[in-house]
Amino acid sequence: MSFEVEDRVAGATERLLGEGTPFTRLGVSEIANAAGIARSTFYVHFADKSDLLLRLAARAMDDLRDALDRWWARRRSGDDRALTECMLRVIDAYRAHATVLAAVGEVAGYDPAVATVWRARVDRYARRLRLELEEDRRRGVIGAGLDVEVAPFVVTWSIERTVAEHVRSSSPTEDRALARALSHFCRSTYA
After folding, report:
1. For residue 158, what is the domain's CATH number?
2. Whole-prediction pTM value?
3. pLDDT one-digit tens code per residue, 88-129
4. DSSP 3-state assignment of 141?
5. What is the DSSP letter of 105?
6. Of 6, 60, 63, 107, which sits 20 to 30 A from 119 (CA to CA)?
């Protein structure tokens, strides 16, 4: 497999989505032409358009995870400002992949495979958060009243959906205000 071809297809797809073409209206031939490859070459690298979308979504999720992992890797060091900066990186990552993530939302409504894979990726992060919270409980950082089974699901999906809607409907000039609100939400949830 040629990573160069995959990158060209990914870039072409993101460009076409950025021009406003809904993913459901993009044909493989259109994507292949925009990437400068033959349609048959597309199928050498991707099983179908859903496979392409899932790979693009994996890149986006990796960037989102990396933005959040900085906070966890530093063992939540810093004040509210540090957590706000973390949330701002999450919003930035979402904006960088907004067209792909919107396409995931579009396709997940009718393609159970895409919906399942996307939910599994978000849920995987929620499980990671649960492990972090369990460790924090052992260290005495959070109280016994927090339901470490449910809270990670609520926080992870709340942030994902909130940021998705914010990026879809708000200006980047409003990102810092949302980052502060998300920081406060997280802090108050785990207090």
Report:
1. 1.10.357.10
2. 0.85
3. 999 999 999 999 999 998 899 899 999 998 899 889 889 988
4. coil
5. H
6. 6
